[in-house]
Amino acid sequence: MRKCFVAILLMSVLVCPALAGTAGACGKAAVTPPFGSALRHAILAPLRAHLRENLQVEAVFVVRWLKVKNGWAWIETDPQSKDGKNRYEPFAALLKREGEAWAIVDIPAMEEDSPPIDGTYFRELMDLHPGLLPEVFPWKP
Predict the structure, then answer these.
(1) Percent of all residues in the chain with a pLDDT value above 70, rounded to a whole number
(2) What integer pLDDT is reported at residue 111 of this predicted model?
(3) Is 2 within the bounds of a domain?
(4) Residue range 24-49: mean pLDDT, rounded
(5) Is residue 13 in some structural domain?
(6) DSSP string covering the chain, please?
(7) Residue 122 lies in a domain
(8) For the domain that residue 76 is a member of, what is the CATH number?
(9) How many structural domains compose the chain?
């Protein structure tokens, strides 16, 4: 019985990298990595770097939405200064796992006169990126 359990556990780890603690998620549903997890930190790292390099802003992120599935992640955040005194414009991004790291694939314009981030936008992203699934988005097709 124990050998059977070990074999099933080993197969699960080989089939689903998320269970092995690597940056990914598989299975039926998209997942939201818990606060403080290595996966969540790895997904937020390129966002921090982007703000630092492009806007000279050191930020922490209040995450409003984060879902991960099959090496893809969609995140919506409210960045703020580390001390919480300064709040910045909302920041959303599509990310893809590349090896052990995550990379930003798309950052939607979020100005008032920009096109909406809606079903049309998400369908266009899925058309552009084979393998990207609707489960990561805050939208029901």
Answers:
(1) 80
(2) 85
(3) no
(4) 89
(5) no
(6) -HHHHHHHHHHHHHH-GGGGTSS---SSS-B-PPTT-HHHHHHHHHHHHHHHHHH----EEEEEEEEEETTEEEEEEEEE-TTSS-B---EEEEEEEETTEEEEEE----STTSPP-SHHHHHHHHHHSTT--GGGSS---
(7) yes
(8) 3.10.450
(9) 1
